[in-house]
Amino acid sequence: MCVQAISNPRSEDDQEKAWQAVCPLVNQLRNYYEFSIALEAVVVDLLSVLCSDEMTSRQHLEMQQSLFKQFAEILDFTLKFDDLKMTNPAIQNDFSYYRRTLSRMRMAGGDDIDKDLDVNNDMANRMSLFYAHATPMLRMLSDNTTKFVSQNKDLPVENTTDCLSTMACICRVMIENPNYRSKFSSEETVLFCLRVMVGAIILYDHVHPVGAFAKSSGINIKSSIKVLRDEHPGKVEGLLNALR
C-alpha cells in the first residue's frame, strides 16, 4: 500500500497525467476497503466458534489452534494496515484529489461518467467514510466484535473477553519468557505476537463492561506495556499509540 502524493496540477495536460496516476492507487484503496467488508463476516464466524459456550477459552485454544491462528493473523494484518495508513498521509491526499476531480468531471459530463470508473461516486463516498478513521481496519474489527457480543445475548460476554484476554496473555508470555522467545525464528515473529497482543487488548477494551485498563480487568496491562517498551522504540511506537 504505497500511494504517492500528487502535486497540484494546473494545466489540462497535468490534470490528465495526475488523474491517470491516481486512479490505480485509488483502485488499490478500493481493494482494501472491499477486503475489510469480507473480513466482517469472517470475524463473526470465528468468534462464533472460539467464544461458544461449549468449552473454556483454554480448551478452545488447545482444540482449535488453527482457528486461533487465523484470528491472530487477522489482528496482525489489522495493526499493520492501520500503522501504514497513519504513517502515509499521501493516502488521504490522493483520495481527496480523486474525489475532487471526480466531482468536477460529473459536473461537466453528468452522472454517466460513473459507468466507466472502477471507483464511482457512490463507492468513493463509502470508501471515504471508511478511510476517514485514523485506524479504519481496527474500527471495523472492534465494531464487529462489539456487534457480535450485543447480538448474542444468550452468550455470556465473559466468553468473548476470556478468549481475548487468553490470547493477549499467551502472546505476552511468549515474548517476555526467554525460554519461549529463544525459539522465535525471526524478529518478525516477535512483532507478530506484539501486534496480536495489542489487538486483543483493544478488542477486550471495547467489549468488557469496565474495559481493559481497570484493576479488575482480566489483562495485565502493566506487564503488557512493559513488554512493548522493552522493544526497539521505532518498531513498537505505532502499537503504543494504538493502546493510547
From TrEMBL:
* Keywords for this protein: Lipoprotein, Membrane
Q: Which domain of life is it from?
A: Eukaryota
Q: Which GO terms describe its cellular component?
A: membrane
Q: How does it sit in the membrane?
A: Lipid-anchor
Domain CYRIA/CYRIB Rac1 binding stretches? 4-244
- What InterPro entries has UniProt attached to this entry? CYRI (IPR039789), CYRIA/CYRIB_Rac1-bd (IPR009828)
Work out whether the entry's keyword set contains Membrane: yes
Alphabetical list of PANTHER family matching this protein: GH09096P
Q: Which GO terms describe its molecular function?
A: small GTPase binding
Keyword set includes Membrane: yes
Q: Where in the cell is it found?
A: Membrane
Name the family: Belongs to the CYRI family.
Q: What is the protein's name according to its record?
A: CYRIA/CYRIB Rac1 binding domain-containing protein
First-listed, main subcellular location of the protein, grouped into a coarse class: membrane
Q: Which Pfam families match?
A: CYRIA-B_Rac1-bd (PF07159)
Biological process terms from the Gene Ontology for this record are: regulation of actin filament polymerization
